[in-house]
Structures are given as C-alpha cells and as structure tokens.
Amino acid sequence: MNMHFIPVNEPLLNGNEKKYLCECIDTGWISSEGPFVKEFEQKMSATAGRKHGIAVSNGTAALEVAVQALGIGEGDEVIMPAFTIISCAMAVTKLCAVPVLVDSDIYTWNMKVDEIEAKITPRTKAIMIVHLYGLPVEVDSILALAKKYDLKVIEDAAEMHGQTYRGKPCGSFGDISTFSFYPNKHITTGEGGMVVTDDDGLAERCRMLRNLCFRKDVRYIHDEISDNYRFTNLQAAVGLAQLERLEEFAERKRAMGRYYTERLKDIEGLILPVAQTDYADNIYWVYGIVLDRQIKADNREIQKLLAEEGIGSRTFFWCMHEQPVYRKQGLFKGESYPDAEYLARKGFYIPSGLALTTEQMEQVCEGLHRVAERI
Ligand SMILES: *Cc1c(COP(=O)(O)O)cnc(C)c1O
To answer: Which of 13, 162, 172, 291 has the fewest CB neighbours in a 10 Å radius?
Structure first.
C-alpha cells in the first residue's frame, strides 16, 4: 500500500465537533448523564419525525433493544432479508427467536417485498425492514401486510439518515426504528446508535433495556435482564455537531453518487446503483457496484485488484443463511436465496466517505477503469 492509498471511508469532522467535545471536558459531563445526550436524542428523533429517541452504544445495540422492547421471544419468527448485516439476525437469535429470510432484488439490493407474504406463519411476530446501501425498501406494501396479519414492524435505518420514502423520513416507519452512528454512516458519533419510536410505552421500555433493566421504583432490583447499552455525553457532542450538517451531508452523498455514475457508466459488466425509483432518490450511503453475469471474477478478486491500484473497497454483506455460526446451530438448513447469494459474491463498494475529495474520486474511477480491463 502506498502513501496515497484512498481509504474506503473517512468521516468529515470539521464542524463544531471539537468545540462541543471541549465543553464536555470543561464541564466534567462525560458520562451518559450529560445534557448533550437528551439534546441529541430530541434533535435526531425529530429528523426522523419521531416523538422519542433513545441513544445507545451502537446500531447493533439499537436493534437488540428494539426487538426486545417489542416483546419478541423464544420461538417467535421475524421476517428479514437474507442479505444484510448480522446485527439484524443477532438481535433476533439472542432472544431465542427465529429469523425467517427473504431473497433480495438484484438491482435495488433490498428485500423482495412480494416474497414476504408466503413466509408468514402463525408464529410470525414481526417484519424487519432493512434499507440497504442507499435506496429504501418499498415500505407501503410491508406496512399493509403488517396490518393485515397484525405484525410488528422494526425499521433498520442505520444507513438512511436524511433519506426519505415517498417524502417521509426513513426512521419514521413501523412501530420502532433504529439508527447507527458508526463512522461510515451519514452521521457519526464514533460508535453509537439510536432507537426511535412514537410509542410512549415502547420508549420507556427501551430506556430501561438500555440501562441494565434497573427497576424504576428501586435501583439495583431487576425483574428482567438486558445489558449496558448507554451512550455518552462525548458521543452526543460529536453527534450534535454532525447533525447540524445533515442536509449538507445528504446532498454531498448524492453528488458523489452522481459523479461516480457519470464516470463509470461506460464500463461494461458493472451494474451501478439505481439512481431513483418512484419512491426515492438514491442517497448512496456507499457507492455499491455489482459485477454482471458476464464477469467471471468475484468481489474478493476485484477488491484485491483495486488495492493494487491504491484504492480501498469492501465486499457486500454475506448472507445470513450462509453464516457458519448459524449453520452450526442447524438454522436455515437447505435454504437458498439465489439473488442474495449473487449480491454477496459479486457486490462491492468503492470509497464513499464524506471526506473524499473530487480528486480522489477521479483516481478511483481511473483505477476502476484499469481494473475493468484486467477482468
Ligand atoms: C452499520 C449497520 C448496523 C450496525 O451498526 P453498528 O453501529 O455498527 O453496530 C446495523 N444495520 C445496518 C443496516 C447497518 O448498516
């Protein structure tokens, strides 16, 4: 790797981050009790059009808290995409509930909504919507199904700050939604996450689940088990500064996406992100690319070739039904989701962080053109 290696993600931290962090140090408020936490919860949940925000230690914890708050437990089934991050399945399997998988669309990379209904059984308790890589899932038909079968809806909006579905913010759909603030997300707090909901009772339960399930009336007495998922004032300080720039960041992501598409659209054999659907404009959380069937190479080989060009990249997620840990447990035996499997083997993304310069994007495009000639 040379000195000019272009990292796959670099966050932009040149707003008020330092100023607010210094305030934490100067005032001594560094724990989860500090005043920035509530302010960040209020402002972030407001961007998602939600009444309550419960900040937690990361996006995975947000999913765990959300699923547990809904009362999902042993033997309950939760429908979700096969192609996603393990956090989604883990939030369910940790409670001894069962993820029920659905294949993904080869062009939007999201769950095939029209295959959900066939997966509903008497044990189905919820559907987990996971918006992936920049386009939202087609939410309306999922909400209609949930109504018809009386199911809960959990929305994983980890990659969707600032994105909308038919003009309404992602993070506002279903019973409960979650965000991540990992550094490759549109808004970062280093590590961090949030559960948002309009339901007062659910919000109350999430607050308890975030904090070891201390009973409200007496401390140190516990009727339930959860974990320590608290979020610190230091994280909130960074988050507040980031949130001030949400619109600018969303616009920047979209401009980066348009730039890449313009410069890469002539390369044969690459399926580029869908720019828009009738329900959303792509926000290009990361700029994903899928290799066409005519290309023999898989995403790992492309990743290696890009690295030789000094370009960082990541392969797409690996499917849940192909996870060794779940196979060992006997889950998903004999199941196959061909398009999801294809995406996991043929999809990758190129540098997409908010700190990326136009010059770097140009280098990425030139490198990718050279790689394309070699495959
Ligand atoms: C990043 C991400 C998560 C997990 O968030 P962490 O903060 O890394 O735990 C969950 N779901 C999706 C879709 C994500 O992209």
So the answer is: 13
